[in-house]
Amino acid sequence: MKTCLHPKYLIPIEPRATVLGDHALVMQDEKILAILSSAEARQQHPDAQHIELPEHAVMPGMINLHGHSAMTLLRGLADDLSLMDWLHNHIWPAEKQHVSEEFVFDGSVYAMAEMLRGGTTTINDMYFYNDDVARAGLHTGMRTVVGCSVLEFPTGYAADADGYLQKALASHQAFQGQSGVSFRLAPHAPYTVSDATFKKIVALAEKHDMGIHCHIHETMDEVNDSIRDHGMRPLQRLHNLGLLSPRLIAAHMVHANEEEIALLAQQGVHIAHNPASNLKLASGFAPIHAMQTAGVNVGIGTDGAASNNKLDLLGDLRMAALLAKAVSSNPTALNAGNALEMATLAGAKALGMDQQIGSLVAGKFADVIAIDLSALETLPLFDPASQIVYAAGREQVSHVWVHGRCLMAERKLQTLDEAQLKDKATWWHQKIAAA
Ligand SMILES: CSC[C@H]1O[C@@H](n2cnc3c(O)ncnc32)[C@H](O)[C@@H]1O
Ligand SMILES: [Zn+2]
């Protein structure tokens, strides 16, 4: 099947800072077939379904580089706390009581519906019950990278680190060959994973060619506790254990000094920046501009809905751009074009998927979104990239395709029933509130 999009503006991300007018994007089956002038597209592809998007910008679907999808069901359960208080006294007890296969599937589907409605087409997740996160991805059609969590302590999912690792490898094996779903090893954090387990993870990641996803340097407490317990900062400890490499996505990295930024660049580590969660938990201000200047690849994430509390990548992108300027005292830091790249191609690079997604280039998967810029809030329109990053809201995302499949048209989800999803969320609320 062939579909031709005719938007007002086409923002392919590659080549950098390009905005095309009077151009069309041709999708065939799951791939991008061509980008060419609108007139040529009509002439060369008369048999295609032609979709007119006269007020819209079309760009690659956004990549949420760090999330815990199922935590939508815990949204608003514990607010206005520091990370350790939030985790130890509220979230981990709630997870112990409620997290199950059903919880993870329902919560993940719900999160994916919210993310798709906001123009996110790929989620790099990290949670428990790997198979159920993967099933949620297949059910919704969202491109899903399942981070298979590893911790030293028992949960309802596994008894110990080896148990989590076995489950990770079993999930990786079970879904081999399924397009749209892949797996990474996800040690939770330096303060919940031992040296021995980190070493096993490095070896397994190499053996099975898997990426690694870990919370690192999220708070100053984490850094100080590591100096107390290990005699060094977490990043140095992970470096000594061989974890720092292009396989690694370090979520947060709020506290990084100059030497650590140089080390991240040298080792090719990717960063998932989570501005909203970092602000809400008062974790700090990540030195994103310094990292980018040093050559570190930085993508953007929402973190979970229990610490954000939205899964609104577009909103968080605006926050990231504003914060980058304030933190570096430099108004040119993270301009609109670079911000869009952060939410697309940088995320794809971090996942090792930049040959498949992250920009609108012939041969890549057709993960594409359209944003209606005709709203009162986004006029007058001088610069589409500026308007998307600084002025548009996620509710202006009108259409979403993943793998060439239309998952939202004119803001209506095509594969999911919104009323049913809301009923499920209410059911879970009653169950959790009653406990
Ligand atoms: C093992 S992955 C899931 C695990 O991580 C917890 N979590 C969610 N958000 C954060 C965060 O920002 N820092 C550290 N840990 C977080 C989640 O509740 C799960 O227990
Ligand atoms: Zn997180």
UniProtKB/TrEMBL annotation:
GO terms for molecular function: 5'-methylthioadenosine deaminase activity; metal ion binding; S-adenosylhomocysteine deaminase activity. Its EC number is 3.5.4.28, 3.5.4.31. The keyword Cytoplasm does not apply. Substrate binds at residues 95, 188, 218, 303. Coiled coil: none annotated. It comes from the Bacteria. The keyword Membrane does not apply. It catalyses: S-methyl-5'-thioadenosine + H2O + H(+) = S-methyl-5'-thioinosine + NH4(+); S-adenosyl-L-homocysteine + H2O + H(+) = S-inosyl-L-homocysteine + NH4(+). Zn(2+) binds at residues 66, 68, 215, 303. This is 5-methylthioadenosine/S-adenosylhomocysteine deaminase.
